[in-house]
Amino acid sequence: xxxxxxxxxxxxxxxxxxxxxxxxxxxxxxxxxxxxxxxxxxxxxxxxxxxxxxxxxxxxxxxxxxxxxxxxxxxxxxxxxxxxxxxxxxxxxxxxxxxxxxxxxxxxxxxxxxxxxxxxxxxxxxxxxxxxxxxxxxxxxxxxxxxxxxxxxxxxxxxxxxxxxxxxxxxxxxxxxxxxxxxxxxxxxxxxxxxxxxxxxxxxxxxxxxxxxxxxxxxxxxxxxxxxxx
Length: 230
Prior knowledge:
- By secondary structure, this protein is mainly alpha-helical.
- It folds into two domains: 6-82, Winged helix-like DNA-binding domain superfamily/Winged helix DNA-binding domain (Arc Repressor Mutant, subunit A); 87-226, Up-down Bundle (Four Helix Bundle (Hemerythrin (Met), subunit A)).
- The chain has eleven helices and three strands, in the order ααβααββααααααα.
- The protein has helices spanning 2-11, 17-33, 45-52, 56-68, 87-111, 114-133, 136-152, 157-166, 172-176, 179-198, 201-225, and strands spanning 42-43, 72-75, 79-82.
- A three-stranded antiparallel β-sheet has the order 1-3-2.
- A hairpin with a 3-residue loop joins strand 2 and strand 3.
- Helix 10 (179-198) packs antiparallel against helix 11 (201-225).
- The longest helix has 25 residues, at 87-111.
C-alpha cells in the first residue's frame, strides 16, 4: 500500500508542508485501520520518511496528528507506537458515520434541487466509468466528490464537516480496489438518485446510512481474515 502514496508525493514536489503532512497522516491512518501496521508496532521517523520519499518533518507532524486522534502514542525514548484497535472501535467509527449520514440524507432529500440531482447523476456516471477502467485512485476521488455534493445539498455545513472528519478513518483503497464493491456502489447511488427525485426520504436515509454499515462489515471481514484480533 506504500506505492500509491509514494507516487502521489513524488508527483507533487511543490506541495505545501502542511498538505504533505496530511497525506502522510492519511497513509499511516489507512495502514493502521487495515491492520498493515499492527498494534504495538513502532513507527520509525527515518524509515517511514524513506519509504514515502519525504523528509522527516512531515512524518513527525503526521504522527502528532495521529496522537491527537488516539491512533498512536509516544513512548519516551522509544518513539511512536500503534495503539490497540478493537472490533468495537471499528464498529463505533462506522456507527458514527452512519448516524450523521442518515441525518444529512433526511435534510438533503427535502432541500436538493433538480440541478443538484443532475450533478449527482453526472458524478455517478464518472464513477461507473472509473470502475470500468479499474482505476482505484479515480474511483476514490469520484466517490468522495459524489458524497461531498450530496452532503453540501443538505445546507447543513457543520454537520457535513463532522462527517468529513470522521470519514478520514475510512480506508478508501480497500473499497476502490474491489471491483464488486465498485459496481455495488454505482448501483446504490442510482437507487439513491431515484429516491431523491421521488423525494422518498425513508429510502434515501436507508441507502445513505447503509453504505457505512456495509463498509464496516467489509473492513471487519478483512481484519478477521488477517487475524487482527486472534
